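User: I'm writing a short methods note and want a consistent example. For Glycerophosphodiester phosphodiesterase, I'll paste the sequence; you return only the structure tokens, no commentary, since I'll be parsing the reply automatically.
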Amino acid sequence: MRIPENSFLRTTPIAHRGLHDIKKGIPENSYAAYQAAIDKNYAIEMDVRFSKDGKLVVFHDDTLDRTTEAKGPAISKTRNELLELHLQGTQQKIPVFEEFLEFVGGKAPLLIELKNVPERKDLVRATLAALKNYKGEFALQSFQPKYVYQMKKQAPQILRGQLATIPLKEESMPAVQKWALKNMPFHFLTKPDFISFNIANLPFSKARRKNALLLGWTARTEEEYLRVKPMIDNVIFEYITPEKL
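Assistant:
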């Protein structure tokens, strides 16, 4: 296994989209959420995707509807248009990826999820270019096995992970995609260093793979975390204080 014993992937609980709490005016994937995670010595899980003009921004959803005042696909707007929006009714703005890296500056480890962007083929290459001179600790992950394979080929020295889940029957996606999300059939090609699996589906025999850590996402209550804690190597969490449990 390539992951060192002192890696954050083993030792440090990971705050999902930063240590956010909208009841306190701290929206997800915002500078306020990242600063809160830094202050508590957590690692930060966050998301990167393209804007319409090919700039990297930190934003989770495929659409803008849930977390901004705008509507429609996130990729339908340029970086400057995205920067005009507000997150969840606050004054917080969508971060530009390079500026986010400068903001964190190695003060917290990063678990960077590359969002599937069918409109563009170069997300992995662009992300790696932005990270080229970054000095902090980080790892990459994605639901898209093609991206994980590209990580392996383009930057084999960087720790990489496969996100996975067992989709609900009512979820609208092709059956073969649901099967792949659950069974991770390309593991032998992508050879991820860790698996990030939906804790709602654990225990699941295929989630634990040889030579790979198992992370669990996303624990939102103490009960969820305590149930899954014996099954996983580290947790991605919201709204709880894992080290006290």
